[in-house]
Amino acid sequence: MELAIGFRPHTGWAIAVLVAGSARAPIVLDRRRVQLCPDALPRQVYHAAQSLSRAQAARLVEQVDAAVAATTAAVLAELVGVAGRHGNLIAVAVVGHPRELPDLDAALANHSMLHAAEGELYRGALDDAAEALGLPVVPTPPTHTVDDAALAAGTTRDALTARLTGLRAELGAPWQADHKDATAAALMALHLAR
Description:
Nucleotidyltransferase, domain 5
């Protein structure tokens, strides 16, 4: 059975859903909230770095970036192990598009760039961890995930939305918007990677 993992990242954590099947008949094999940043470090590192000297800020961002990379790689390795018990993992989907970010000084000088840099830290760590394992990564825009997944899978948005909503009755709680987005993204990755 071919599988994909969909991630819906947030600041310091993500929802991960392991999916098989198709848009018409998705099979959710595993779902969980995964931590991407160790508790001892600031999840919003760029916000934390604002009050530090330039040298201290650079060291803190570098420290958190390295810790997030290691934690994310471990999380993905664990999920790859789970996937291996069910079938062949062929792709990873990440809700969010890669962004070019400014240097540290520019990121710290603009509040919206603080949030963008923090978002990219976690989204990018998921990309890097998947690519290190040789898994193709499919990015999906957060505002059009279900639309893009439906289009890729050859179904309608309404049909896919109904199917994703119906999974709650099968799976129970928690089953929220993040789970649906991660599942839709994984279904799209499955379709595109085949």
